[in-house]
């Protein structure tokens, strides 16, 4: 009779590497799809705007399904500073480790957007300049909002939809009440979130994604970036503390 190997917890280095790779995948896949699909729509009239939105929303959802399936057992597959903070607020993650996850998530996202810029350097004439002049798929309001929505609309959708996202994650990954279909449920939720809010502010719910694109999106994108750092975190904190109070109590 052979003995099963002893399962050891992933090292911190493994966890951080998984978070960086997962965030890279999310930004590279989701933002890349948005940029390249938008180019086809603009240059060839190949797609209506709604089809571009659907493509981007699906891409973001698929990256989460793939990344969570690959790395949930290593790092928890957060790939998002707001998710990390929300899980900590709910008591599911150590506050002491949040900054480490956030740093590598931001780094992974920036590397991904940098690779998209490198691809653009070898693209059609004027593609990269046009993409950057258009905000490089950055989040924003007014001139950066695909639908022309203002700042209050961006704040509301970021708080509400980030809270929804974190609550779903907490529910489907619950140690006793969770589901083996968690990666699919989380990915579909992110797809739905994008379908709701791309027209409003290009959908953040993820500060790492917002930082990654704003760095190449020009002055307006950088000036508006604070909203997509602050309010996803607000939504995540509300969700984490509320979930803990409502669903983790006993008696």
Automatic annotation (TrEMBL):
Question: Pfam families, from UniProt?
Answer: MIP
Query: In Gene Ontology terms, what is one molecular function of this protein?
Result: water channel activity
Q: Which SUPFAM superfamilies match?
A: Aquaporin-like
PROSITE patterns from the UniProt entry: MIP (PS00221)
Q: Please indicate which superkingdom the organism of origin belongs to.
A: Bacteria
* Annotated keywords: Cell membrane, Membrane, Transmembrane, Transmembrane helix, Transport
TM region(s), chain numbering: 20-38, 50-72, 78-95, 102-128, 148-173, 180-200, 225-246
The principal location of this protein is membrane
| Gene3D superfamilies (alphabetical) | Glycerol uptake facilitator protein
* UniProt GO cellular component terms: plasma membrane
Identify its membrane topology class: Multi-pass membrane protein
Mind telling me which InterPro entries this protein's record contains? Answer: Aquaporin-like, Aquaporin_transptr, MIP, MIP_CS
Give the location in the cell. Cell membrane
Family, per entry: Belongs to the MIP/aquaporin (TC 1.A.8) family.
List the protein's name: Aquaporin
